[in-house]
Amino acid sequence: MNEREPTTKPAVGEVETVASMEAILECVAQPVWVVDHDGLVVFVNPAGIAALGYDDLSELRGRMGHETIHYKHRDGSPYPAEDCPMTRIRGTGETIHMEEDWFVRRDGTMFPVSYTGTPLALPDGPGVVVAFKDIEEQRTAEQALREREAILAKVGQPVWVTDQAGFFHYANPAALAALGYDEVSDLVGHPAHDRVHYKYPDGTPFPEDDCPLVQARRAGRVLQDTDDWLVRKDGSIVRVTYSSAPFELPDGLGSVTAFTDVEEQRRAEEAARERDIAEARMAELRVARRRIIEAADAARAQLERDLHDGAQQQFVSALLQLRLAERKAPSDPDRARELREQAIELANGGLTELRRLAAGIHPAILTDRGLGPAVQSLASRLPLSVSVEKTPEVRLPAPVEASVYFFVSEALTNVVKHAQAREATVLIDAENGELMVEVSDDGVGGARAADGSGLRGLGDRVGALDGTLEVESPPGGGTLLRARIPLKS
User: Fold this and answer.
1) Beta strand extents in 314-432 (DSSP E only)
2) What is the CATH number of the domain that holds 210?
3) What is the CA radius of gyration of the chain?
4) Do 168 and 150 belong together in one domain?
5) 36 within domain boundaries
6) pLDDT tens per residue across span 379-411
7) Which residue(s) pair with 479 in the sheet?
8) Which of 75, 235, 240, 413 is the most exposed place for a label (fewest CB within 10 A)?
9) Contact 101, 134 (CB under 8 A)
């Protein structure tokens, strides 16, 4: 339909009324028009003139309002005036609001609007004032948003959208499932931080102002985090990685957040780490056991040499002396007596040598009286001052006592040989199912396990009991060896 010509001229009273409104309505940014009791346009403010595609108020004043801007439906079919809600206002005096309707521009094109129509008392009868809003951009944005939300609903990764105030605007099915919710209404319209990020994993409150997601949304910037958490509906914590970015919404700039539940991945990684550690410890233990076996073989070989060169030779010599004395006895009793005395001396020397060797293998005091007295006895025989500060008051399993005794013995031997120390300290404490053994000195320090077999051998002894060895040896600051051995019940 083309432009319509005015059918009547406005009355004098109406002109005065319009003049009184123009000063007010011309300053209103929202498009507004006014029709009189006959439906004739008496005023349109500049925002309305522009929205309807006109250049001047004179092009609209005096025209029938419905036949000028509301005469057809969106599909182009005629829209009778008697069916128009705005025309009924003059008779009913009611106020109406329409969320979506269509107005016609000067060139015949149509655009979507929302409007409110309100009765207006004019001198010659009731009129109507209509304030409207062009919602073309809003509809376009909403349609784009619906399309994006339809896409996000098909995405397997959990995604949510928050508005500029931080309230949930959308959450896809994957996000609902990951966060433990059944209905999207449980999230949409609620503050996002207060729903899914309100506490630390330890349960303490997480203030909204400290939340990186909130800060990124307020600043309109992109944010990524590979180690964060969210709170499920039941209050449990789920570890996540996420990306968050600005997201255009009809009412302003919000944000879209895509996240991934990495709880299972973290558990798998932790299990893999524990498995790798266990395998490394087993490999280490196999190597340590091999070294222990090799050391035991070497010790046996040395013992055999010591027995052969020492006690065994003396006992063999004593036996030869006794045989010679037996042959000499009939003819030379005096010589036989001397030979028997020499044999006794050799036998005593052999016994002494055997005791010495036996003490190196397993001292009798350790078997008879336990670890404390054995360590005290060991310390008293060394050529430097050794203070034994503490030892267990109760007996420990024999394998543990033996291993600890020789650990202390070897550690103190290293101090004597390498530390250039004036004094050393030994502390052995059994507490909370663990035995702690410390051997420290005031020597030159700088000891490292890689420098020789001494510390490695000590580590092997401790490792054979599923224990650990710590070495603190700063240059010039002395050395502290600390072994921790579990006491199995």
Assistant:
1) 385-390, 423-431
2) 3.30.450.20
3) 50
4) yes
5) yes
6) 998 889 999 999 998 888 888 888 898 889 889
7) 441
8) 75
9) no
**How far, CA to CA in Å, does 455 sit from each of 273, 277, 403, 451, 470?**
27, 22, 14, 8, 10
pLDDT of residue 355: 64
Whether residue 124 is found in the same domain as residue 75: yes
Section 449-464 average pLDDT: 72
In 3D space, the residue among 54, 277, 197, 272 whose CA is nearest the CA of residue 187 turns out to be 197
Specify the CATH number for the domain of residue 406. 3.30.565.10
440: Cβ contacts below 8 Å, ≥ 6 apart: 424, 425, 478, 479, 480, 481
CB 456 within 8 A of CB 437: no
Examine the domain organization and report whether 224 and 280 are in the same domain: no
State the total domains in the chain.
4
Helix or strand holding residue 441 (H, E):
strand 434-441
* CB hemisphere CA count around 427 (13 angstroms): 12
Query: Is 352 a member of any domain?
Result: no
Structure pTM?
A: 0.37
Sheet holding 32-35, edge to edge: 41-44, 32-35, 125-134, 110-122, 96-104
- Phi and psi at 245, nearest 5°, equal -145, 155
CA distance 116 to 128: 10
Q: Where are the beta strands (DSSP E) in 232-313?
A: 237-249, 252-261
Query: What DSSP assignment string belongs to 210-252?
Result: G-HHHHHHHHT--EEEEEEEEE-TTS-EEEEEEEEEEEEETTE
User: Range of 397's domain?
Assistant: 364-486
Residue 2 lies in a domain: no
Q: How far is CA 106 from the centre of its chain?
A: 62
Contact 410, 457 (CB under 8 A): yes
206-264: pLDDT as tens digits:
999 999 999 999 999 999 998 899 999 999 999 999 999 998 887 788 998 989 888 76
166: left (phi over 0), alpha (psi -120 to 50) or beta: left
Tokens of 260: 């991934």
Is residue 105 assigned to a domain? yes
- Of 70, 65, 24, 68, which Cα lies nearest the Cα of 42? 65
Phi, psi dihedral angles at 162 (to 5 degrees): -115, 150
Note whether 127 and 143 are same-domain residues: no
Q: Which of 56-60, 297-301, 403-407 has the lowest mean pLDDT?
A: 297-301
Tokens of 205: 């409150």
What's the chain's length in residues? 489
**pLDDT at position 322 over 60:** yes
> What is the chain's percent helix, strand, coil content, to nearest 5?
45, 25, 30
Check pLDDT > 70 for residue 318.
yes
